[in-house]
Amino acid sequence: MDFISLLMPHLMLAPIVLPMLTSALMLLMREEQQRLKLTLNILSTLAGLLIAIALLMWTDQAGAPVTMGVYQPGNWPAPFGISLALDRLTALMLVTTSVVALASIVFAAVRWHRAGVHFHPLFQFQLMGLAGAFLTADLFNLFVFFEITLAASYGLLLHGSGRARIQSGLHYIAINLAASSLFLIGVSMLYGITGTLNMADLASAIPHVDGADRGLLHAAASILAMAFLIKAAMWPLNFWLVPAYSAATAPVGALFALMTKLGVYTVLRLWTLMFSTQAGESALFGSTWLICGGMLTMVFAAMGMLGSQRLTNMAGYAAILSSGTLLAAAGFGQNLLTAGLLYYLPSSTLALAALFLLADLLDRWRNAGARTAPYEDDEAPFLNAELVPTAGLNLDEDEEVLIGRVIPAAAAFLGLAFLVCTLVITGLPPLSGFVGKVAMLNAVLNPMGVGTSAGHVPGFWGWALVALLIATGLVATIALIRVGMRHFWASHDRNTPQLRVAEGVPIAVLLLCCIVMAVQAGPVLRYMQHAADALHSPGTYIHGVLTQAPVPNPIPAKEQP
Amino acid sequence: MEIVLALAIGVLTGSGVWLLLRPRTYQVIMGLSLMAYAVNLFIFSMGRQGLAIDKEPVLRAGIPTDLVNYADPMPQALVLTAIVIGFAMTALFLVVLLASRGTAGNDHVDGVHSRDVQEMP
């Protein structure tokens, strides 16, 4: 711990600089040096994970309710220079990103990284953009890091080529370019009204905005929110998401499960800063919209899950369902509820990433080990009219189907992994999805009347959230169980799945993280509660960023003549 | 001056949105470019004093260094960054557009060569 403190504030820069240097180095290598690039990529991502864990430990020091790291790369005082800020939420996002990234690069190492050129540099650029967007405390740099993330994601989406990827990539790029225009309009309007781009300074300026300008301020915030909500996949701005995510190669799909969380993160960060309860007339502006939009997203995603036949499409809708849940819960602006949603965020992200990877293995099993899927339509796999056992089964003397057959280890692994994914995504006990949902339900209903900000009476929206949390869980369960039955229970003329260790391990690790989160729910929830409390009392963040003094010049200034 | 700029931004944005909703990929990219121009003009107009006429863009000897005498430098910095990023993104989009043209054999955004969509004015 002392060692980490010794390295701080400079260690904060590492999540951005490390992937940048790695990808710059990879750009210098020849395309044939795939193995070297792969090794470098895995090592760099692993180092990124260790750094993220170190940062997480630093933010969660004992005794300090809020530990803030602030770094000024240009050494200018806060509202004028560029600032980076690190708190518990940022550290949590960094760790989640690194875990998913490490899993997907190990998974890609088996075959996907050879499907096209420049996979490794793009992968690292994506990590750099994500880390930068999480760390920045400045609106315009948020835009720049968003664009870095997006530029890399365009390349990664097209990785492997093929008509489906190019077609959905076209829509993905067009919608994101339009969203970037909205982002710029919102940012420049905010600058015009408040005269600052620093998020902390913005938050302290908003209560003092002129009454005449308040409408403009709200318009600017809404336009900015629109840009984030497109990224966060809020209904109906996500028509591009499911085709794009299901067309992407499996490791990229897993990485994209993080991209929607970037939108959720920015909404959480900016909304709680700008429109906190201390924001005067603008307090909690737009909360009804967030709640309504999030709930509509949940309904839309649940229907989509029920309606989709391919597992990758279903995983895309599950990603939308997860961000809908997060946005609806965020809209309440209660610290207990936010703690629950912060717990739900990493657990659902990890499970979604695992589901994207798993879908690839199941597809390959179905296609008897073919390198690429031969189908491009939305037809369900072997959807025979009746899912009854047909010819070629083990029958005993009484012509009864024999129950109990030897299950090959690989098929058993796939089945178990799918089961764990289902449990976490739908929020069934006893895994982390359940704990997250119970934490949210508990905050809304608050049966014991504990806590500070949550109301004792849920009210209409509270009940609506409770109903939707349970109903979408049920619908998701039905949808995923149907897929599970089709893949694992129905009889097929298939060989046992070919599973490589390097493909099984990432999925197992991702799911193991979910299990560990469930086992260690107490300490994890305590961490999330601290993070949520810090989000809902933005004074500490504002103070931390604005009072950070520049580092004095090591060379003494010359005497004035 | 304000009304001229507002009209210019409005016309550019309107045309951009219209083109963005067209069925051909080329029209979509033109629409995105027009929207980017409109956004850049909009950022200029969002300086701290609105539109500054006859004011120095950079510091000059003999003129006091406050915003009364200078145009706001911040929007200019923002526009510069936005232009660079916008160019890069447009170039990237163009590549994907060409790839899509190659695989689909037509330049419809959905890759479907539909007669009635094509015949739309």
Keywords:
heterodimer; A: 561 residues; mainly alpha; two-stranded antiparallel ribbon; 20 helices; 2 strands; globular; B: 121 residues; 4 helices; 63% helix; 0% strand; elongated
What does this structure look like?
- The complex is a heterodimer of chains A (561) and B (121).
- By secondary structure, chain A is mainly α.
- In chain A, helix 4 packs antiparallel against helix 5, helix 4 runs antiparallel to helix 18 and helix 7 crosses helix 10.
- About 4% of the residues of chain A have low confidence.
- Helix content of chain A is 66%, strand content 1%.
- Helix content of chain B is 63%, strand content 0%.
- By secondary structure, chain B is mainly α.
- At the A-B interface, helix 6 and helix 7 of A face helix 2 and helix 3 of B.
Describe what is shown at a glance:
The complex is a heterodimer of chains A (561) and B (121). By secondary structure, chain A is mainly alpha-helical.
Topology of chain A as a string of helices (H) and strands (E): HHHEEHHHHHHHHHHHHHHHHH
What number is the mean pLDDT of chain B? 83
**Distance between termini of chain A?**
47 Å
Query: In which range does the helix fraction of chain B lie?
Result: 55-70%
Mean pLDDT of chain A: 83
Main β sheet profile of chain A: 2 strands, antiparallel
Strand content of chain B: under 5%
User: How many distinct helices of chain A?
Assistant: 20
Count of DSSP strands of chain B:
0
Question: End-to-end distance of chain B, in Å?
Answer: 35 Å
Strand % of chain A is: under 5%
Q: Which structural class best describes the helix and strand composition of chain A?
A: mainly alpha
The chain pair forming the largest interface, with residue counts per chain, is: A-B, 30 and 35 residues
* Cα-based radius of gyration of chain A, to the nearest Å: 24 Å
